[in-house]
From TrEMBL:
Compartment(s) where it occurs, according to its Swiss-Prot or TrEMBL record: Apical cell membrane; Basolateral cell membrane
Membrane topology summary: Multi-pass membrane protein
Protein name: Solute carrier family 22 member 7
Catalytic reaction list: guanosine(in) = guanosine(out); estrone 3-sulfate(out) = estrone 3-sulfate(in); GDP(in) = GDP(out); creatinine(in) = creatinine(out)
Classification via InterPro entries: MFS_dom, MFS_sugar_transport-like, MFS_trans_sf
Keyword terms, alphabetized: Cell membrane, Ion transport, Membrane, Transmembrane, Transmembrane helix, Transport
CDD domains in the record: MFS_SLC22A7_OAT2
Family as reported in the entry's similarity comment: Belongs to the major facilitator (TC 2.A.1) superfamily. Organic cation transporter (TC 2.A.1.19) family.
Transmembrane segments: 139-158, 170-191, 197-217, 224-246, 252-271, 337-355, 367-387
Amino acid sequence: MKFEDLLLETGGFGRFQILILAILCLPRINLPMHFLLHNFLAATPSHHCAIPHQEAFVNLTTEEVLIISIPRKPDGTFSSCEMFSQPQFHLLLNSSLQPENKSIIQHCQHGWVYDHSQFTSTISTQWDLVCEQRGLNQATATFFFIGVTLGAMVFGYLSDRFGRKTMLQLSLVCSVVFGMLSAASVSYTMLAITRTLTGVALSGLSLIVLPLGMEWVDVQHRTFTGILSSIFWSVGNMLLALAAYLVREWHWLLVAVTGPCLLSIICLWWVPESARWLIAKGKVKQAHRHLLRCARMNGRKDFAVSPETLTRMATDKNVGGSYSYISLFRTPVLRKISLCSGVVWFGVAFSYYGMSMNLTGFGLSIYLSQFVFGIIEIPAKMVMYVLVNRVGRRQSQAWTLILTGVCIGANIIIPKPFTSLRSVVAIMGKGFSEAAFTTIFLYTSELYPTILRQNGMGYTSFLARLGGALAPLVFLLDEVWRFLPEVTYCGVAVCSGTVAFLLPETLNVRLPEGIEDIE
């Protein structure tokens, strides 16, 4: 007997499954509020060098003080990182005539003055992470994703060994603790450490929520489950825009996006452990208890599968042994799946976060960009619900990723003044990018067998978070060549999309239980 047959005995997809999915959607909402928080946490408002003894220029307007103190860039705006060593009063007569003597221009000596009209405070304004320190500002996101990367390996292994629910509870508790410590940070070092640990903790949510839900639903509702979970990620995207708009101070913004984890901790007590995992580990009494509860809630009082039947299922599959990440590469078909899916996950995350962390390059306000990027994901996911069931997982995965790269590449060619066209292309690219992310979560959970599913998700999530960690640093390449970041995102998306064609199709195929099902 297959586990899918057991689910049919308990009523298939009923009230029990709906309750589980509803509860598991709560932590999914919270994930993007942290994963994309860098857009607001580390936002850099317009700034210029602090001007010493400014009170001496009482007869000059603020604009005139800037003219004599701050050099202009070629586009006519005031420099953010340079100042004159002495006031240049002659520029009051003709401000467009900039001094040819570069020796009178120096780096900021007395700190910076920031425009607080949009943000009350960010970590950039708190610790002056601008100009020469700009790299530290971008590194904040990298530290977070390094934590997520490490957490993927840790929670992937532990959830296959100790259970999905236990590790999900641990992940949520640690997320609250480290999230609140981040909000209380008194130095950049403390923030970097606590954000890294928050990333480790949140990785458990990212890794476990979808497989735990998927392992309780039948074949016919797997796609629905994956898409539903993904839609709540988009809801979190939009709520982040709202939270950031209402809370402009970075300490309180961290509190605002961490607080909802408490609700998830409370609600998670009603979610049972995965019966698939319990059977795979030989814990048939617990599995039988949860299946009885499932049957009763779904109105199937005639459920008559005995614990002995579950014991035979576990014995037949011989799945009670110990498995590790090395097991993903021991057999030829599983090795090919692991290598190819790892490349695809890296490309999906690298291009997604590359687009998601560039909210100021498309002519919209940062809050509106975040909201629009969130809302466009929902119709993209509705379309994917149809496509993955019609054309299959493999074709959907490959083409959404390739088209993401095409849109990124198109915005390299479109001139900056065409802001409306650039915005439309960027929104389309974001839609394709999110469609690729939606598909890969569903696809990967179907590629790996139950005994290795969390190890597989941990390994692929490790590579995805590696892509997420590198994505913000690629923005620094604009100092080498203005378009190098976009070219990099485009190239990686197209290449990884091509690799997706090498993966097997899983449409309407039962979830594999053991390695022999894969081979």
